[in-house]
Design brief:
Elements: H1 2-12, H2 53-65, H3 67-88, E1 93-103, E2 118-131, H4 136-202, H5 208-242, H6 268-274, H7 276-297, E3 302-313, E4 325-334, H8 342-408, H9 414-448
Antiparallel strand pairs: 1-2, 2-3, 3-4
Helix pairs in contact: 2-4, 3-4, 4-5, 4-7, 4-9, 5-9, 7-8, 8-9
Length: 454
């Protein structure tokens, strides 16, 4: 009796066996070393950051039609459904029973039974309810709540990474458009230059070698053009797949690259709040902590309340008579007597799962800091590189102009003209590629910060 009173007291006080989870202490530096900013950045919709209507439409299409995102959302809905099942364990389970059977029992028993087959009728309600003395059900619910939240963050991670991938592909495509425009203009000028050289060859002012050099330069640019067009087609098809469109029917008209947004960096606390992948690992850590409590309660006495009530009769006409009533109600207790060390091993297994989840969570934080530092460092260095590249391209263009003037007056050979124009084209293309790398670093920072700002 005293033992039953102790159980009842534990139940009424909401006894919970097992460790109480609290989020681990993580890194909390005040600044990023690449920039040294301490003020948090505002949050918001990063899809509008590049101010490009086509990109915005593609991002919207990706969110609604991408299959990887849809799969992640379906997994989240699975977790929500499982959570609903776990929460239902808090309440009694009631089942109904209706039976009509024709049967014959053995006559060679200790009781006298009907010798001919007979019918049995039964109608009853059954109630089963586990009294959650030690918190096993509550631990299970808390575990699934954490797993559901982790699944929600997995969905946000898939959404973020897919949008970032699309943005990177789109920016790369737009900068290829710039290179294509540059090469088309170069080819047009070189073809005109080639005609002028051929005219000078026909007039005897120069040799056929200059004509062949001019032709080679033109054809080299044409070869580069179609290699870039092939790469553009591949990016266009990649974007189609990300947006759920048929690549055979999908087209993006050529245009200019979007403007580069200016992004303030956030403090690490802001980073951890935004990164859904970091939040997912923390929620899985919480779920693993609840698993320790479940492992402990599985080896404690389990108390259930059962009740049965209804009617049973050998005649259908007498089934609902008062004399046909049946019922029983009472508690049942099950408890392990011999577990051969299973209790200790099960608890150690749960603890090992917890420490694995803790290590993964800590590593996700380090990766988050790494991603932000890389992006900030890239932006900082590429800004310097871009300024230098702009000066280099301008200098190459001026050199090509002056050498052309000297060639027209017969002061330099055509070989010097070709070399100057080739260098100018290289510098122009490097400028386009540096601008692309600078914008890609911006996308990397947006993703590393967990989405965007407002």
């Amino acid at each position: 009796m005293k033992f039953l009173l102790l159980w009842f007291s534990a139940f009424m006080s909401g006894c919970m066996v097992g460790p109480k989870y609290s989020p681990p202490i993580t890194f909390n530096h005040g600044t990023y070393k690449a920039v040294g900013l301490t003020s948090p950045s505002p949050t918001g919709n990063w899809s509008a950051a590049f101010s490009d209507p086509t990109l915005k439409k593609l991002l919207t299409a990706t969110e609604s039609a991408n299959n990887n995102i849809a799969a992640a959302y379906a997994r989240y809905n699975q977790a929500r459904a499982i959570l609903g099942l776990k929460r239902a364990d808090r309440f009694p389970a009631v089942t109904g029973q209706a039976l009509m059977a024709r049967q014959q029992d053995t006559g060679n028993d200790i009781f006298e039974l009907p010798k001919s087959p007979y019918r049995r009728y039964r109608s009853a309600l059954n109630l089963d309810y586990e009294i959650d003395f030690w918190g096993r059900v509550r631990h299970s619910i808390s575990k699934q709540e954490a797993l559901t939240q982790a699944s929600a963050n997995d969905y946000l991670t898939a959404l973020l990474s897919t949008k970032a991938e699309l943005t990177r592909d789109y920016i790369a495509l737009r900068h290829l458009d710039s290179e294509i425009t540059l090469l088309n203009n170069t080819i047009k000028l070189r073809k005109e230059n080639q005609k002028l050289v051929e005219a000078r060859v026909n007039a005897g002012d120069t040799t056929t070698i200059d004509s062949l050099r001019a032709e080679r330069q033109t054809e080299t640019a044409i070869a580069d053009l179609y290699r870039i067009k092939q790469r553009r087609n591949e990016l266009e098809n990649a974007i189609a797949a990300l947006t759920g469109a048929n690549p055979s029917l999908f087209r993006i008209k050529p245009s200019f690259p979007p403007p580069t947004p200016s992004i303030p960096s956030g403090v690490p606390a802001e980073l951890l709040r935004r990164r859904p992948d970091v939040a997912a690992t923390e929620r899985r850590l919480a779920a693993s902590a609840e698993e320790i409590g479940i492992a402990i309660t599985n080896y404690l006495p389990r108390v259930s309340l059962t009740a049965r009530g209804g009617f049973a009769s050998l005649s259908s006409s007498e089934l609902f008579d008062s004399t046909s009533q049946l019922w029983n109600i009472g508690p049942s207790v099950t408890f392990p007597l011999l577990n051969m060390g299973n209790r200790k091993n099960d608890k150690n297994r749960a603890k090992a799962i917890y420490y694995e989840a803790l290590a993964k969570h800590k590593q996700s934080i380090l990766i988050a800091f790494r991603d932000v530092e890389n992006a900030l460092s890239g932006i900082k260095n590429l800004n310097i590189s871009l300024a230098a590249q702009e000066k280099s391209a301008a200098a190459a263009g001026e050199a090509a102009r002056l050498i052309n003037l000297r060639y027209n007056t017969g002061l330099v050979s055509f070989f010097e003209v070709i070399e100057a124009e080739r260098n100018h084209l290289i510098e122009q293309r490097m400028l386009v590629q540096t601008k692309a790398a600078r914008q890609q670093a911006t996308v990397q920072l947006i993703q590393a910060l967990g989405g965007g700002w407002e």
